[in-house]
Amino acid sequence: MNPGEHVTEIVIFTVLFLVVSGMGFVAARWRRPQDLASLNEWGLGGRNFGSWITWFLVGGDLYTAYTFVAVPALLFGAGATGFFAVPYTVIVYPLVFLILIRLWSVSHVHSLVTPADFVRVRFGSPTLALLVAITGIVATMPYIALQLIGIEAVLKTMGIAGSGFLSDLPLIIAFVILAAYTYQSGLRAPALIAFVKDILIYLVILVAIIYIPARLGGWEVIFGRAQEKFAATPAQGDGILLNANNQLQYFTLALGSALALFLYPHSITGVLASKNRNVIKRNMSALPAYSLLLGLIALLGYMAIAAGVKPIGTDNNTVVPVLFDQMFPDWFAGIAFAAVGIGALVPAAIMSIAAANLFTRNIYREYINPQATDAQEAGVSKLTSLVVKVGAVLFILLIDPQFSIDLQLIGGVIILQTLPSVAIGLFTRWFHKAGLIAGWVAGMGGGLILLYNISNPAIKHAHFGGSAFPLAKLGLDTKMTIYAGFLALLLNLIVAVAGTLIARAAKVPDGPDGTRPDHFTADEGDPRVKDLDLSSST
Amino acid sequence: MPGNNRDRSPWYWLLLVPIAVPLMTFLYNATEPTLFGFPLFYWLQLAFIVLGVATTTLVYRMTK
């Protein structure tokens, strides 16, 4: 496409992008702390966010630009199976309700910053904590890279991205700006930007779901044309309804994704930044507003079919931007593109902060400098957040984007393997650290083997072709598929239970538990361990 | 100690309902009845959002 036809869009996109970047830098002064030089302030915004800020921050964190581009692309390509995003984001909140308030409480009492910090205190095992930290970093990195794909899809539609170094320049500039204000302002930057991002997204989607169906002849026409398209393709798995073979995959993928979502370090960062338990509880009933938004956005995929959208090249991720470009007047398309572009900045910033905190707390402080001061920790995290973002840019520039999509798929499966130590660990200390380590190894290995054996002829992948594992490969006489992460987690749990029983029988020494039952129910104002130490030493 | 029983309220069991219902594909894997042109598959799953919000709101109020 020719950038000349898109001048209005490019101007509006650039202006909004710059305004938001300015907000990112100013954010350092927002809710003025006396000193930003600690992870409590730089990495968790002072642990003092109320219900509104938390709603915008966590919403902006979980529902990423990539989601908004990729989920409609799934419906555009395969139909009903892509709609799993809706049950996934409905069940996640009741599912994690108790988990998150207990994690908040124990983190409040012990001043914990990362999920690996919790594992360290609960199971007394630096090794297990290191495994959880590395899993978190590895799962998060490709996720940050994917946010760039969201921006890239928009840039491509405006005709200012393609191949060669110069065409990558806008993407690099966007990320340099992002890196700079995250470095300066920490979590306050995405928290402040999230307001603008979400207001823009809600505005664009409300207009899109009223205006586009009206132009296309109504919802019946849209679903009808989608059905015609899928009926005409030779593929067996597509259609506007599920078939007998992909229902198991549909609900195990929804359940597995829901279990994985709040194990991602960036989700936990957003939650730990809130002020008290009631803020989290209130958000569990307010955050589904975004799920409604996501469900409507998903249907943009069918609107694109009905409007006869042709993706740019073979990149299905461009269908939503192209749909906006075709349907909206230029000025509104510019706003819509800015919404997607800015939508990538919020999660990318939080993810890089979360990955940096994991490195600082569970590698630097544990193995390199155990005596690190608060200021040293903040300094290391700031630098690491830069390294993480440079890594993400290199990922996109040097490697086929399809590879980051594959890695993100793997990311969901591997982050699930921290569930026994992080989520179950919040309720019971029954597991032995040796059992949990064995379970992690088994789940990780098993998950990778399953994913390696999934082929996808549609994208010419012999391996890592998706997350739907055919049960026939386990010797079962069926065409049904199941979410690979779900099987890997089952294996992990079985090995963790067996390993715990063996370790107990063999009297292998277990790590000390640094928590007490009341630590899991403490609230704002209850004493912290640090305060208790101080009062007992004076 | 304060709050030792905070997480033991029976109300929390109610959270199982909006977890279980959206996973039962047989409830909604059909076209009819349609609503505003949406096949059942789409409008019912969107309606489950309301079920989720109602349940978590109730549990929040009862355990505040």
From TrEMBL, chain A:
InterPro entries, per the entry: Na/Glc_symporter_sf, Na/solute_symporter, Sodium:Solute_Symporter
CDD domains from the UniProt entry: SLC5sbd
Residues spanning the membrane: 6-28, 49-69, 75-101, 128-146, 158-183, 195-214, 248-266, 287-309, 331-359, 380-399, 405-427, 434-454, 480-503
Main location: membrane
UniProtKB keywords: Membrane, Transmembrane, Transmembrane helix, Transport
Top-level taxon in the UniProt lineage: Bacteria
Span list, region Disordered: 513-538
Bilayer topology: Multi-pass membrane protein
Subcellular location, record wording: Membrane
Record Pfam families: SSF (PF00474)
Gene3D superfamilies noted in UniProt: Sodium/glucose cotransporter
Similarity annotation: Belongs to the sodium:solute symporter (SSF) (TC 2.A.21) family.
PANTHER family xref list: MONOCARBOXYLIC ACID PERMEASE (PTHR48086:SF8), SODIUM/PROLINE SYMPORTER-RELATED (PTHR48086)
Protein name: SSS family solute:Na+ symporter
Organism field: Nonomuraea africana
TrEMBL record, chain B:
Keyword annotations: Membrane, Transmembrane, Transmembrane helix
Keyword Transmembrane helix carried by entry: yes
Listed transmembrane segments: 12-28, 40-60
Superkingdom of origin organism: Bacteria
One Pfam family in the UniProt entry: DUF3311
Full protein name: DUF3311 domain-containing protein
Species of provenance: Nonomuraea africana
